[in-house]
């Protein structure tokens, strides 16, 4: 740069000299010689300028390279800073991990310690980081197993839902069919006429012992569906039934605390204790008289007879007694089926409760007798165990009568026999 300055100063001096020579009016040859004296300075100036340009280009290249290197360094610094923040965040998340769905079933600390001890017996305990990794691995496996079980449970639930939907569709189809049947039976019901409606007594019916409920439901269904000339009702009160149930529970608790039953006298008294609810069936001469008796309370609709069914809880038997015209008519029930007089013979339970010695059922406080046909009507199939009567012909006749009755509908057979005995008595 010094050479360039010197060349510039020399060219300025030559230019001033040329101006002075021009003003002095010197010859052109003198002017040409003065101008030629500035050529070396001009050449030196051009060389200096060229060198400066080359130096500037080299400096520019070095600046570009330095800038690129600096940009790469800045990018690497940003990348390292980002990675550091990311790793710090992940490490903090691992240290501060809290499950959004905590469960007490996943507790793998003991399992992780046992697995580590089994993998390297005798080795020193691992550092906290290795222990944490082992625990996380076992917890991940446990959560995978739980996820699989959850998926299986959801699949099973969907399958059950699909099956329930299919059953619901079938039920809706059946309901539609039943509605169609109900609509189709209306003209037939108008032609045949309405049956006597059943008067349900749900609270009393729910309190009945099972055999009496079976008898009541059969008789009521036979009246409504078959048009039998009978009427069924329940006698007793709900309060008395609840009191009897509480008393029975208290006696059972006392018996358990006392270690057994009482004497034979107490057992005999318990045999004849009846349930406060009973089922009563009234027999009429025709369905019209039955309907008239229900619609009009008066003497004109009096039934032919009434059969009262009661239940002996201690013996688990059903007793029956007949009332005709306001008086007891036990002979009518004894004549219903051959060989069945209701004397309690053949009931082993009665003999055990009564104690040693001969036994015959009977008590003034309990006039209802345990006929075997009453047990059969209440759901106990006891007719085949009737003792055979004396004589071959009588035995064959009894067996034929029993077989014929078993082939018949029980309610219809009972009503038919009652009608026959009432007409013959």
UniProtKB/TrEMBL annotation:
<dbReference type="GO" id="GO:0006406">
    <property type="term" value="P:mRNA export from nucleus"/>
</dbReference>
<protein>
    <submittedName>
        <fullName>Uncharacterized protein</fullName>
    </submittedName>
</protein>
<dbReference type="Pfam" id="PF09766">
    <property type="entry name" value="FmiP_Thoc5"/>
</dbReference>
<keyword id="KW-0539">Nucleus</keyword>
<dbReference type="InterPro" id="IPR019163">
    <property type="entry name" value="THO_Thoc5"/>
</dbReference>
<comment type="similarity">
    <text>Belongs to the THOC5 family.</text>
</comment>
<dbReference type="GO" id="GO:0003729">
    <property type="term" value="F:mRNA binding"/>
</dbReference>
<dbReference type="GO" id="GO:0000445">
    <property type="term" value="C:THO complex part of transcription export complex"/>
</dbReference>
């Amino acid at each position: 740069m010094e050479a360039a300055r010197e060349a510039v100063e020399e060219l300025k001096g030559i230019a001033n000299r040329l101006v002075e020579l021009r003003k002095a009016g010197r010859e052109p040859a003198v002017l040409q010689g003065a101008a030629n004296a500035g050529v070396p300075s001009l050449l030196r100036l051009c060389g200096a300028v060229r060198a400066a340009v080359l130096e500037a280009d080299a400096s520019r290249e070095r600046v570009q390279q330095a800038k690129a290197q600096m940009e790469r360094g800045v990018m690497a610094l940003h990348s390292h800073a980002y990675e550091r923040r990311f790793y710090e965040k992940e490490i903090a998340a691992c240290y501060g991990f809290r499950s959004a769905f905590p469960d007490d079933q996943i507790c793998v600390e003991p399992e992780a310690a046992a697995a580590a001890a089994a993998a390297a017996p005798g080795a020193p305990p691992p550092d906290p980081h290795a222990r944490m990794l082992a625990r996380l691995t076992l917890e991940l496996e446990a959560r995978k197993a739980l996820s699989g079980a959850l998926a299986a449970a959801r699949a099973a639930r969907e399958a059950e839902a699909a099956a329930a939907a299919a059953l619901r569709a079938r039920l809706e189809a059946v309901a539609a069919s039943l509605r169609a049947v109900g609509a189709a039976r209306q003209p037939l019901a108008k032609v045949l006429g309405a049956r006597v409606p059943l008067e349900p007594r749900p609270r009393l019916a729910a309190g009945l012992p099972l055999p009496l409920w079976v008898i009541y439901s059969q008789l009521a269904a036979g009246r409504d569906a078959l048009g039998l000339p009978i009427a069924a009702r329940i006698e007793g009160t709900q309060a008395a039934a609840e009191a009897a149930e509480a008393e029975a529970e208290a006696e059972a608790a006392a018996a358990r605390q006392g270690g057994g039953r009482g004497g034979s006298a107490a057992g005999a008294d318990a045999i004849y204790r009846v349930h406060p609810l009973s089922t009563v069936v009234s027999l009429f001469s025709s369905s019209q008289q039955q309907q008239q008796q229900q619609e009009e309370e008066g003497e004109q609709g009096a039934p032919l007879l009434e059969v009262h069914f009661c239940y002996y809880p201690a013996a688990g038997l059903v007793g029956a007694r007949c009332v005709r015209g306001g008086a007891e008519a036990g002979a009518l029930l004894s004549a219903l089926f051959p060989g069945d007089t209701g004397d309690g013979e053949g009931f082993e339970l009665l003999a055990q409760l009564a104690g040693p010695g001969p036994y015959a059922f009977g008590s003034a406080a309990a006039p209802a007798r345990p006929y075997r046909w009453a047990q059969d009507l209440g759901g106990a199939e006891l007719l085949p165990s009737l003792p055979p009567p004396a004589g071959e012909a009588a035995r064959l006749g009894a067996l034929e009568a029993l077989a014929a009755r078993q082939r018949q509908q029980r309610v219809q057979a009972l009503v038919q026999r009652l009608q026959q005995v009432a007409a013959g008595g």
